[in-house]
Fold this protein.
Amino acid sequence: MKSWSPKKPEKTNEHQKCLYTLEIYIIGGPMTKAFAKRNKVICRTIEIKGSQTLSDLHRVIFDAFDREDEHMYEFQFGKGPHDPKGDRYVLPMAMNSPFDDGGGIKGDVTRTTIGSLGLKVDQAFGYWFDFGDDWYHQINVAAVMDEIPAGKYPRVTKRVGKSPPQYAEL
């Protein structure tokens, strides 16, 4: 079996120097009805540099929602946040998976930078975490700034609603 080693992110355009503000909503997952009733909206606002990768975005989302156990994930770009015919960005181990149906794998999350995606304000895309429990998220592009203020990125700038337990007892 071929071993995997991380590669440098692709740097392709001027959008690498932009700062993106993304709103990440949980739109599906194994939450109890009581938890969902108390937390009608569960959202985190994140700022991330165009030069950072989808893998960096995953990491900040994982931490922002207080998750404990890593699982497989992917980002999905299509006509809506979870368009099965849209482009998919996956973990390196899934790039040449024998289980891939050949549909839409566009790139590797560790090499794909946020700036290379051509994101526009009001665009939405999907993030699917844990292919067993199926945590579905919608990510809305809220802003794209041409300048990056000093600070550490990616970072969470706003939290709405409590984080659901990663493993809810339903």
